[in-house]
Design goal:
Elements lengths: L5 E4 L6 E2 L2 E2 L3 H10 L3 E6 L6 H10 L9 E3 H12 L3 E5 L12 E2 L14 E4 L8 H12 L3 E4 L5 E4 L2 E4 L2 H11 L4 E2 L5 H9 L9 E5 L2 H10 L3 E5 L6 H7 L5 E3 L7
Helix pairs in contact: 4-5
Length: 260
């Protein structure tokens, strides 16, 4: 298998955790820059805006520009915009609403009243903010004709040493109840990967590798999009999942520190 000319790198669980940067991660990115190997940082995190993610990365000592970071929230807003869905009900933490730009937000977590039926519902990771009332509200919008946009389908993530539910289970519940399929905006969407690759001038996905700790979004999603899928043994990595899933990473690294 050819060595990648570029990398897409996951954030939480790959470059850092709640305890701080993964040992050696900062040095790995420095080595990639020195070797002039392109990379982009891509994340399904919907708990904050891209600006706050960049601020967090810089606080951990990573040298990163905003245009190098691709998020599911920005992708979801673009999906809505390109489809002509202007009125959107967001179900994401308030800190990420700024990345929805000029969309008309109402209902959900927007803090604004809904002016008629929204064109689309955007679902991210609300964590413990989820309630029956919020799920019911999203369900009613979808049943009334609103499109369902999932910012991610991630099953779980690592928080303070424990695995906790991500957006995927709530998206699946809305799909099951409504009988409608969600449009996935972030990983493992092929379009999401393609946009990040295009920003580096790469037309051929097989020349790039996705590196992350999620078997489904990072590895399987990347492979289906034509990239190599590399798994790291950090973050939410579980050997049992690798064994039982049937997904075969192109490489398994002890951590992102092995890059470069």
């Amino acid at each position: 298998m050819a060595e990648p000319r570029a990398f897409l790198l996951d954030l939480d669980g790959t470059l850092y955790t709640g305890d701080g940067p993964i040992p050696g991660a900062r040095e790995a990115l420095v080595r990639l820059r020195k070797r002039e190997i392109s990379y982009r940082l891509i994340s399904n995190t919907t708990s904050c805006s891209r600006a706050l993610l960049v601020q967090r990365l810089r606080g951990y000592g990573f040298e990163v520009a905003a245009e190098e970071v691709f998020t599911a929230t920005l992708a979801g807003a673009q999906v809505a915009r390109e489809a002509g869905w202007r009125r959107v009900a967001p179900f994401v933490p308030e800190a990420s609403l700024v990345d929805m730009g000029d969309l008309e937000l109402g209902g959900g977590t927007s803090g604004r009243r809904v002016d008629g039926l929204p064109d689309a519902v955007l679902v991210g990771d609300l964590g413990e903010r989820w309630s029956y009332a919020l799920l019911q509200e999203a369900f009613e919008y979808v049943m009334s004709g609103a499109a369902l946009i999932a910012l991610s389908r991630d099953r779980y993530w690592l928080r303070q040493g424990s695995l906790v539910l991500d957006a995927g289970p709530f998206v699946a519940g809305l799909e099951f109840a409504s009988g409608k399929s969600a449009i996935v905006a972030g990983k493992p969407s092929t379009a999401f990967y393609a946009k990040a690759l295009d920003s580096m001038g790469l037309g051929s996905p097989e020349t790039a590798a996705m590196v992350g700790d999620d078997l489904w979004s990072d590895v399987q999603g990347a492979q289906r999009a034509g990239l190599q899928g590399w798994l790291v043994r950090t973050g939410k990595y579980l050997q049992a999942s690798v064994t039982e899933s049937g997904i075969r990473p192109d490489r398994i690294l002890e951590s992102v520190a092995a890059l470069g």
